[in-house]
Amino acid sequence: MIGLAGEQIIQLAILMPLVASVLIVLAGKKPNLREAITLITAVMVALLVMTLAGQVNAGERPSFDVFEVIPGINISFSVEPLGMLFALVASILWLVTSIYAIGYMRGHHEKNQTRFYAAFAIAIASTLAAAFSGNMFTLFLCYEILTLSTYPLVTHAGTKEAKRSGRIYLGILLGTSIGFQLLAILLTWSITGTLDFKDGGILAGKLDPAYAGILYALFVFGVGKAAIMPFHKWLPAAMVAPTPVSALLHAVAVVKTGVFAILKVTIYIFGSDFITSSGAGDWLIWFAAVTILLSSLIAMTKDNLKARLAYSTISQLSYIVLGALVAVEMSLIGASMHIAMHAFAKITLFFAAGAILVAAHKKDISDMDGLGRVMPITFAAFTIGSLSIIGLPPFGGMWSKWYLALGMVQTEQWVLLTVLMLSSLLNIAYLLPISVRAFFAKPKEGVVYTQIKEAPISMLMAIGFTSLACIVLFFYSDPFYNLAVDAATGR
Question: What range(s) does the NADH:quinone oxidoreductase/Mrp antiporter transmembrane domain occupy (predicted)?
Fold first, then answer.
């Protein structure tokens, strides 16, 4: 990767998964070759993105235009610290999930594996393209491609339930993006004459502060992938997909593209100073606060493990949205860091859920009593991921919650600080009992686990990596922290 310019790295990082998707289809009848293409591409993309991160940390901001759509609007790519942070998380976890997916798809005897890996590659390409978008038009285009490319993954099983979930998925995500987000983009274009991302935003001095809240709401609710209530039901519906899809796309790529888009709009379209001075987010913060608490309460009622994790994700996404809406330096740092910290923790939980399904064929928490004693690695990892989600030391999730809390203190938002504290208590209530039951409860009468052992080694490798990362990120969060600070301060 040495000697490549930033522009070349961006192009390769986006194009390589697209080329890989074609090669995967061509190699469909040779599973080993198909999976080798997936892994080699994932390794190369991760190395490319890490190389680019080094250039960005050194102060470089590579950018280029692909072509002009209409006068003044280009398909444009540009790397700034927030996009770099998101791309780093997505590329690393794509590699880890690819390793995990091989064990899961084979161990669970999934059908249509070639289609799965090909769609997966297209999805990661569109995610990276969104991360590197240089203007709101390009981000919107990549956002929509990501929605369409993940539809085959959501409906992978081909059952009536999967098809119904796919309709909910497309209906909400396309409905919100076309009905609200596209309208917001057109209004922004008419007001400013540009859609380029700019430090400090492009709306200050051009939009009457009295109307800022309306435009901001169109963006926030138009980004359905952020799962703000009442536009959240697509996410639990999408849990019908195979666990590797739930793990990466619905704990990292899809949902994080949503909250990433809201952060981009906050920092580079509105500008944090304009949001705080105009009060644009003052009423929207309560939608985020309600989503945090209500989705946590719903999570407590779910016996299906993936359903509980889905509602947990909805809650955690609203941490990021809340940090964006408060729009001060500390809250933006916390929101940006939570993209990374939540990603590593939540993907660990989904990995564990998939391992339990493959090894023990169990989906419901009530059926997992005593299972931890025969699957100790899986449930130990689940416990680590849970503690990071809760925000306890020594786990990385503590740092993002810490800076979010500092943002509430900085703005004297005591009610919102209380919401964050209550949410952490609810995290304990719906996550830790799973591990306690698995390790200490007696199996149900007549249930014997003699035939159950840990999941395939490739799945355990992935689970081990992400759970270890949750600990490492407590002691060494600098790569993500530095990018988060640069994004929040406009460096």
Answer: 133-425
Asked if residues 153 and 123 have their Cβ atoms less than 8 Å apart, the reply is: yes
Both tokens of residue 282?
């003052």
* 261 falls within a domain: yes
Domain count, the chain: 1
Does residue 197 sit within a domain? yes
- Alpha-helical segments (H) within 361-456: 376-390, 397-410, 414-440
Spatial contact of 109 and 116, defined as CB atoms under 8 Å apart: no
Find how far residue 363's CA is from the centre of its chain.
Answer: 23
Which structural domain, as residue segments, surrounds residue 77? 6-489
User: Considering the domain boundaries, does residue 1 fall inside one?
Assistant: no
Task: Please state the pTM of the whole predicted model.
Answer: 0.94
Q: In whole angstroms, how far apart are CA 327 and each of 283, 320, 423?
A: 13, 11, 20
Distance CA 244, CA 371 (A): 22
Peptide bond before 242: cis, by omega within 30 degrees of 0? no
| pLDDT tens digits, 286-345 | 999 999 999 999 999 999 999 999 999 999 999 999 999 999 999 999 999 999 999 999
Alpha carbons 307 and 233: distance in angstroms, whole number: 11
